[in-house]
Backbone:
């Protein structure tokens, strides 16, 4: 083989790798967008369902919905869509609501559901809200910091500067949850905090196959989890990471695991 021919072959192989890679990226991107559209459509339907109440409004004036199920002694607050680009976290909470609507006897405690805390982010497919703030860095805890490295982690001017954060804080103050479950993507793992007995995470892991982890791998100042951890009521908090944003989890399994969690406290 001549030198020129060899270079030509190497060039063609590199070109092929580039094309395959960019196809995979755009495929992943369009799958993610499709799931976002699905979440938006399901969330929009809540407007016309009188069982859902409006508990707040976002920066851009989008409605934040809430609904209670069950009347048991303890309360579990479940929040999806804290980050707008994590659409399965919204769909999972709506699927849970549908199951509890059909089978209210499945739970022995009260469940309070907020399927999408960040409807601005969902509508535009961003992690942050309509004001460019990461709600999960805007909670009132001693760890809150005005410093940030990446734009999508902008914590806001001060704790609870954002109406979405205020909506979540108010839900905690009004409903006094024993446990908060926050739904996220993409890590595909269950993160119980220090207030949460490991047994509950083990049950959830058994149902879904998601492993248990204790370290997300980076600091999260001003997060919802840091707020609940410091709360005087010693609220349990589970961060539920549903896996890749361009994929959908097994929602039936996720629903089953959430019902286990609701019945735990
Ligand atoms: Zn998230």
Residues:
């Amino acid at each position: 083989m001549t030198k020129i021919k060899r270079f030509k072959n190497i060039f063609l192989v590199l070109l092929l790798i580039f094309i395959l890679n960019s196809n995979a990226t755009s495929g992943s991107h369009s799958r993610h967008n499709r799931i976002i559209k699905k979440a938006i459509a399901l969330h929009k339907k809540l407007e016309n369902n009188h069982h859902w109440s409006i508990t707040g409004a976002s920066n851009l004036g989008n409605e934040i919905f809430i609904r209670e199920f069950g009347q048991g002694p303890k309360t579990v607050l479940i929040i999806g869509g804290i980050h707008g680009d994590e659409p399965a976290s919204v769909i999972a909470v709506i699927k849970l609501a549908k199951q509890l609507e059909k089978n209210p006897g499945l739970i022995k405690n009260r469940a309070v559901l907020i399927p999408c805390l960040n409807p601005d982010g969902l509508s535009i497919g961003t992690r942050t809200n309509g004001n460019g703030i990461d709600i999960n860095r805007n909670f009132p805890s001693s760890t809150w910091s005005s410093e940030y490295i990446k734009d999508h982690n902008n914590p806001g001017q001060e704790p609870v500067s954002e109406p979405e954060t205020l909506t979540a804080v108010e839900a905690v103050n009004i409903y006094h949850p024993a446990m908060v479950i926050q739904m996220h993507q993409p890590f595909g793992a269950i993160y119980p905090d220090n207030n949460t007995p490991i047994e509950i995470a083990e049950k959830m892991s058994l149902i879904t196959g998601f492993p248990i982890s204790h370290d997300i791998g980076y600091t999260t100042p001003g997060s919802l989890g840091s707020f609940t951890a410091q709360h005087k009521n010693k609220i349990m908090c589970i961060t539920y990471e549903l896996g890749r944003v361009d994929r959908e989890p097994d929602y039936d399994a996720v629903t089953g695991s959430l019902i286990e969690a609701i019945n735990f406290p």
